[in-house]
Amino acid sequence: MAASERVLQVLTCIARQGRPVPVRELVSLTGLPQSTLYRHLQVLKKWGWVQEHAKSGLYEPGPLAVQLAHGFDQHSWLMQAASHEIGQLVQRSGESVGLLCYLHGQVVCLDMQESQQALRCSFAKGRAHGTVRGASAKALLAFSSAELRQSLLEQNSLEHSASGEQREIFELELAAIQRQGYATSENEVDQGVWGVSAPVFAGQTQLIATLTLMAPSQRSILKQQEFISMTRAAADRISRILQF
Predict the structure, then answer these.
(1) Residue closest to 205 by CA, chosen among 163, 144, 156, 153
(2) Which ranges carry the IclR-ED domain (predicted)?
(3) By CB neighbour count within 10 A (0-12 exposed, 13-18 middle, 19+ buried), where does 151 fall?
């Protein structure tokens, strides 16, 4: 791995944790010698990508990360295409809606617009989740490339000691998601939360993100088909905008 990639590896590890991180943990996460890690941290500190807490010595994202995130929110072609549709879906459904993507072994929430109705949900903008549990993860997995899908399924099987039969059942579920064009889940990430997720494409087949509506299970019982239709339609409109 080139030195420039190792610097980015350190930055990625800090960003993923979502909390200040001690050097010893970064050594474990990156596999880099402590002397090398400190050298890369000095470069990142100099450019404002990370900062070190004056008292605790823990490392966290720096002020330049805020500037980059603001630029993504304001100028990203995906966010520009999706923002209005997300807001409209929140208004029409009265529920919370998120935009999520797959990134380096995690499902990352790019945007989350909450409804005025109560929802106890762990999804928040910038937060990362696993790649196999929940409607968002399963939709991303089902519509991703066959190579990436198999890699993630193998990784998950090893991490959770899944049997061959369990993996086969999950692959059949992913095939069904592909056929119907959306994924649903209940209690898989957050207890008492039902969700539906539809893929967003750039070009004809390039999966770029997934649009997910989340609602309390009790409140969604009589509206699930309506929520599915609304979410799929909104995702399709975003995809059409991204065609041009």
Answers:
(1) 144
(2) 64-244
(3) middle
Question: pLDDT tens, 118-152?
Answer: 788 888 888 888 777 899 999 999 998 888 888 87
* Full-model pTM: 0.82
pLDDT at 201: 95
Q: Where in the chain is the domain with CATH 3.30.450.40?
A: 76-241
- Looking at residue 115, the DSSP 8-state letter turns out to be -
Read off the pLDDT of residues 201-236 as tens digits, 9 standing for 90 and up.
997 778 999 999 999 999 999 999 999 999 999 999
Domain 3-66 CATH assignment equals 1.10.10.10: yes
CATH 1.10.10.10 region(s) of the chain?
3-66
